[in-house]
Amino acid sequence: MMIVVSGKPLVYSGSQTNGTWENCVQLCHEVDECMLAYNNNGECQWFKYEELTSVQQTEPEDGFTVVFKVNNSTTSTCPSGTNPPTFNNQDAHGTLRYYASFSNMLEVNYTIKYSSGVWTFSSTAKFACPNDYWVYLDRPDIGWCFIPEKAPTSLTYEGAIEQCASMGAILTGAANPDEVKNIMYWTSGFLNSSYIPQSFTLRLDGKRTTDCQSTPRSSDCMSNQGYSFIDSRGATLQYYSYVTDQGARSAPGNDCLVVLMMEGAEPIVDVQSCTSATSVPARAFLCGREGWI
C-alpha cells in the first residue's frame, strides 16, 4: 500500500533518482527495493531501507511530498486518522523482498514510528539462503535454496546424499519447469570449470523403487510412484526431458536420476547407475534446503 503525505527526508545516507514525480508512486510500488520516495523538485528520488533513517513531517503549503510503502491494511476499507501512515500515531509496518545479490533473496521487515513531527525507520533483514553460493527460488508453498556442487571423484547416489547432508541440505531435483531450466543452466556452467571433465553427470534426487526394478516400463513405475524421493516438495519426474524416458534401465543398477552433460551436447536427464559406474563420471550433484531458516 502506498501512502502519500507531506514530508521530506531528514536523515539519509544515499538515494536513487529515476524519472519524474508523476510516475514516482507507481515506480516505488514496482521497484522491490523502494521503501519511500520523495518529490525532489519534480524528480523521483527514492530510498532503499539501509539509506533512510527518518522523515520530517511538513505542511501541505510547504510543497514537500513523500510516499511511504507499507503493508496492506488488514481491513477492506482505507485506513484513516492523523499522521498517516502511522494513523493516530500507531506504528506502521512494511516488508521488502528482493534479490540483494545475483542469487540470494533478502527480506527486510521495517517499522515506522511517529513522534514530534518525525517518522523514524527501524528494520531487520534476513537472507533466504546461507550465502551467495546458493540460489533462491520460490515454490508454491515454500522458498527453496539450491546449490549445485562439484565432486573430486565420481560420486555414488548415496555419496551425493551424504555430501548434501554435510551442508545441512538434501539431494534435490526440479519441482517445476523453471527449476528444470535453472538446473540445466547450472550443469552447463560446470563446463567452464577445469575441475571436472567436459563430459560428466550431475546427480539428482530420485531412485527407482525396488519393486519397479523388474518392471520399469509399467505405468505405475514410469510415474512418481515408481521412484523414491528425498525432497518430498520436489518429488516429480514430470518436467524433465530424457535421453529416452523415466522407464529406461539399460543395465542392472541403472535406477538413479542424473543430468547427462556430454561435450558438445545439451544437458538432458537420464536414468543411470546409482554407483560410480555411470556412463561418464558423476562429478556433480544438486543439494537443496528450505529457505528462511
From TrEMBL:
Pfam families: PAN_3
Family matches, as InterPro entries: CTDL_fold (IPR016187), PAN-3_domain (IPR006583)
Domain PAN-3: 2-123
UniProt name for this protein: CW domain-containing protein
